[in-house]
Every structure is written in structure tokens, then in C-alpha cells.
Amino acid sequence: MDGYFGSYALVAALLALGVAIVAGALLANRLLRPSRPTPEKLTTYECGVDPVGEGWAQSQVRYYVFTYLYVVFAVDAVFLFPWATVFDAPGYGMTTLVEMFVFLGFIALGIVYAWRKRVLSWT
């Protein structure tokens, strides 16, 4: 597999092999599993509570905001670890320090905005 397209062919072959293995496992699971549906098994089950009413429920937007803030802090933590390793390298000290303060400034600006809009209150 030499040449320019050789590495692409290898990646495509490995991708096809991975898809085939996953599809084969799912097919084997479907063929080998027992299937005995009963009315009790087909009933909606949620944490041991019997289902009452319809399956539709609205969620408040604040839950999504808290999830978004968690993702922002998780991304922040992911960027802090490589920064800490590069910060000590010779020649990168001041540059990486300024870049990290700019990044943390954007994060702080987002938190201040959420706090000013009273999004962070749980009540």
C-alpha cells in the first residue's frame, strides 16, 4: 500500500472491517436473543413509578443552561491540562500565559453574562 492513496485505502479497509464487526455483533445479538414480549414487559417503566398520563413533559430551559455551563467548564478543564504542559517549555511561557488569560477571560465573560441574566439561580 505505497503511494498517496495507499494510506487512505488502509483507513477505508479498517473502517469497513470495524463496521462489519459491529454489524455482525448486532445481527448475532438479534438472532440469538430470546423474544417473549408480555404486556408487563411492554409497559413504560420509569424508576419504579407506574406511568400516569401521557409521555410528554416539558423541561425548563434552566436545565439546559446548567448543562451548557458544565460543558463550558469541561472544555475549559480539557484546555488547561495541555496548556500546563506547554507553559513550562522554553520560549512559550509568556505567549501561552497571555493566550490562557484571554481564554479564561472569555469564560469569565460568559459566566458574568449568565449571572447578570439571573440564569444561575436555581429557584
TrEMBL record:
Query: Can you tell me where the transmembrane regions are?
Result: 6-28, 63-84, 96-115
What the entry lists under PANTHER family is as follows: NADH-UBIQUINONE OXIDOREDUCTASE CHAIN 3 (PTHR11058)
In the record, the note on similarity to other proteins reads: Belongs to the complex I subunit 3 family.
**Membrane topology term:** Multi-pass membrane protein
- List, alphabetically, the InterPro entries matched: NADH_UbQ/plastoQ_OxRdtase_su3, NDAH_ubi_oxred_su3_sf
Q: Spell out the molecular function terms from Gene Ontology.
A: NADH dehydrogenase (ubiquinone) activity; quinone binding
User: Top-down, what is the taxonomic lineage of the species of origin?
Assistant: Bacteria, Bacillati, Actinomycetota, Actinomycetes, Streptosporangiales
GO CC terms, sorted: NADH dehydrogenase complex; plasma membrane
Subcellular location, principal: membrane
The top EC class is translocase
Q: What are the entry keywords?
A: Membrane, NAD, Quinone, Transmembrane, Transmembrane helix, Transport
Q: What is this protein called?
A: NADH-quinone oxidoreductase subunit
Reaction catalysis annotation:
a quinone + NADH + 5 H(+)(in) = a quinol + NAD(+) + 4 H(+)(out)
